[in-house]
Amino acid sequence: MSATCVILDIGGVLEITPETGWVRRWEERLLLPLGTVNERMRDVWRAGSVGSISEQEVHEQVATRLGLDGAQVESFMADLWTEYLGTANNELIDYVRGLRGKCRLGILSNSFVGARERETTLYHFDELVEQIVYSHEIGVEKPDLLAFEAASTGLDVRPENCLFIDDVAVNVEAARAAGMQAHLFEDNARTIARIAAHLDAGPSTPERLPLG
Fold first, then answer.
1. What pLDDT is attached to residue 2?
2. Which whole-number Å values give the CA distances from 17 to 49, 58, 62, 166, 175, in the listed order?
3. What are the recorded GO MF terms, alphabetically (predicted)?
């Protein structure tokens, strides 16, 4: 329970995920007003992020709500996953790989149903860290404190010994509220320096009660 721990987000941290404009392109193709796709699909996106809908059901809802045929649904979802998966942040991934055996390593990610399979195939995050906690598998998203509890409990570490890295400020603040140390990802250099400082500090030890 006293081990030093580093927990990272995926999108925007381990993956570089700029917006590709795919939703707007589909709205133009379907002659839909700006914002229509997300308006029609909002509850489906939410359900997918907490695992209350299957991939097949997502496809069915895309077809029904946007009036797409089977081939169009496959193309639509391919565009979604292209933006979602982005490209590997190789510098940070390589650094984290070098930490194996020096501290406990985990991932805590707001995700979408189907993410584990695709990210495992593409990036092998399952080989990078000891545990991956996906929102679509636990039914809870950051910044809910239960998500951070799931991550620290799963790694059997104390929250105060965890450094959490995320590119979203509200999630960083939530991690601190959950008792973790936290760092807002802005670039690799500052993030790597922050992780190194965390490891140099080592784990905290519980206060001992006075004897007698």
1. 64
2. 17, 22, 23, 13, 22
3. hydrolase activity
Which tens digit of pLDDT belongs to each residue from 145-158? 999 999 999 999 99
Measure Cα distances from 63 to 9, 53, 67, 77, 86 in Å. Answer: 31, 15, 5, 11, 24
pLDDT of residue 141: 98
Q: Starting from the edge strand earliest in sequence, which strands make up the sheet with 162-166, in order?
A: 131-134, 104-109, 5-8, 162-166, 181-184
Nearest residue to 124 via CA among 94, 166, 149, 101: 94
Residue 191's alpha-carbon distances to 50, 59, 74, 195, 196, in angstroms, are 28, 37, 37, 6, 9
- The yes-or-no verdict on residue 1 having pLDDT over 80 is no
Average pLDDT, the chain: 95
pTM of the entire predicted model: 0.92
β-strands 15-16, 87-88: how paired? Answer: antiparallel
Q: Please name the residues in contact with 11: beta carbons below 8 A apart, sequence gap of 6 or more.
A: 17, 84, 86, 109, 110, 167
Strand, helix or coil for residue 208: coil
What count of other Cβ atoms lies within 10 Å of the Cβ of residue 33? 8
Per residue in 21-68, pLDDT (tens digit) is 999 999 999 999 999 999 999 999 999 999 999 999 999 999 999 999
Q: Return the residue matching tokens 């509890």.
A: 149
CA–CA distance from 82 to each of 10, 14, 15, 78 (Å)?
15, 15, 12, 6
CA distance 66 to 40: 8
